[in-house]
């Protein structure tokens, strides 16, 4: 895309240089036209030769025709230059909007990642807390089981003793 912009810029620069040359030529032609007019006026005042007047008039008409052609060419080049400038402007705007869209998307993804990291950290904390609670409950149940087994054992001992005492009585 950058090469496209570069090509368009160099195209614009070459057209701009051409435009400046045409303007210089127009100025030179205008200067020549003024000189021709001055020369024509001097000739008309000094010499009344019709042939030289006709010749100068033809030259003037030729120069006028050249000027008209150059002006038309200049206008055509100006239109092309404007078209290229507009195209470059639209491409740059499109490129900028694409960059903005990508920046927004990256920002959104970064925010989403941050939220997921927070969620993972919260889940890890809860899992750690639940693990500690389970260990504590397991220890309590182990102690209760040991007490229960001791009580069962004592119950059996007392029962056996009772049976033995009943037999003795």
UniProtKB/TrEMBL annotation:
Tell me where it resides: Cytoplasm
Q: Major place of localization? A: cytoplasm
- UniProt entry keywords in alphabetical sequence: Coiled coil, Cytoplasm
- For the keyword Coiled coil, the answer is yes
Which GO cellular component does the record give, naming just one?
A: deuterosome
Instruction: Extract one GO BP annotation from the record.
Output: centriole replication
Q: Is-annotated flag, keyword Coiled coil?
A: yes
Q: Which residues form a coiled coil?
A: 92-126
Q: Which PANTHER family match?
A: DEUTEROSOME ASSEMBLY PROTEIN 1, SARCOMA ANTIGEN NY-SAR-24/CYTOSKELETAL PROTEIN SOJO
Name of the protein this chain belongs to: DEUP1 protein
Q: In which organism is this protein found?
A: Pandion haliaetus (Osprey)
